[in-house]
């Protein structure tokens, strides 16, 4: 069994504007990097094997909190295709019926030229299956990847509200084994400690 701790990257300009980022490589805001650099990561998490998405915002988050994280392509944000750079509200206003149809597909919602959450789940699970058992890990990744993990672990269809309410500045804990799959353990664990 592997304990998996997931952390979303820090704030970018597009986060503040509520724009879909996807694979668009947006850096952290300078203030965010400064705030993160002042955190004292709890010793419980410092010794984990850390991984991050290859995108700048996750690498900067890991570096700012003092982690040496290995870039892992399986942790990259969902590809949002033609929706990248736009807001969900703007997309709903521009094409309300099309968006309602897509959003009703939950795990299979697929932006034009992008991928669906189920594809994110599949690549995450494929990667987890390659890891050594009993090696606890931490990942700095994206909201879309964390939501995909929650969908799998909580058997959430992604149509209804998420069954847990993550605080995006805190860790979520999952467990993984080939026998049990991905299981949700707890959320909103503070990064800081001793």
From TrEMBL:
InterPro entries, sorted: His_Pase_superF_clade-1 (IPR013078), His_PPase_superfam (IPR029033), PGM_Phosphatase (IPR050275)
Gene3D superfamilies assigned to the protein according to its UniProt record, in alphabetical order: Phosphoglycerate mutase-like
UniProt signal peptide: none
CDD domains in the record: HP_PGM_like
SUPFAM superfamilies linked: Phosphoglycerate mutase-like
GO CC list: cytoplasm
Alphabetized GO MF terms: phosphatase activity
One of the Pfam families matching this protein, by short name: His_Phos_1
PANTHER family per record: BROAD-SPECIFICITY PHOSPHATASE YOR283W-RELATED, HISTIDINE PHOSPHATASE FAMILY PROTEIN-RELATED
Protein's name in the database: Histidine phosphatase family protein
Source organism per UniProt: Aestuariirhabdus litorea
Lineage of the organism: Bacteria, Pseudomonadati, Pseudomonadota, Gammaproteobacteria, Oceanospirillales
């Amino acid at each position: 069994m592997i304990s998996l701790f997931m952390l979303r990257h820090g704030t970018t300009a597009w986060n503040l504007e509520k724009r879909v980022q996807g694979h668009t490589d947006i850096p952290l805001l300078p203030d965010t990097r400064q705030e993160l650099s002042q955190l004292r990561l709890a010793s419980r998490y410092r010794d984990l094997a850390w991984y991050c998405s290859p995108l700048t915002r996750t690498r900067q988050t890991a570096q700012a909190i003092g982690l040496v994280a290995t870039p892992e392509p399986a942790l990259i944000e969902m590809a949002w295709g033609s929706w990248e750079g736009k807001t969900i509200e703007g997309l709903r206003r521009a094409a309300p019926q099309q968006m309602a149809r897509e959003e009703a597909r939950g795990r299979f919602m697929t932006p034009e030229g992008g991928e669906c959450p189920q594809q994110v789940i599949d690549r995450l699970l494929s990667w987890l299956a390659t890891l050594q058992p009993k090696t606890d890990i931490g990942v700095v990744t994206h909201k879309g990847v964390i939501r995909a993990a929650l969908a799998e672990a909580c058997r959430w269809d992604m149509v209804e509200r998420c069954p847990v309410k993550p605080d995006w500045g805190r860790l979520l804990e999952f467990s993984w084994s080939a026998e049990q799959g991905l299981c949700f353990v707890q959320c909103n664990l503070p990064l800081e400690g001793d």
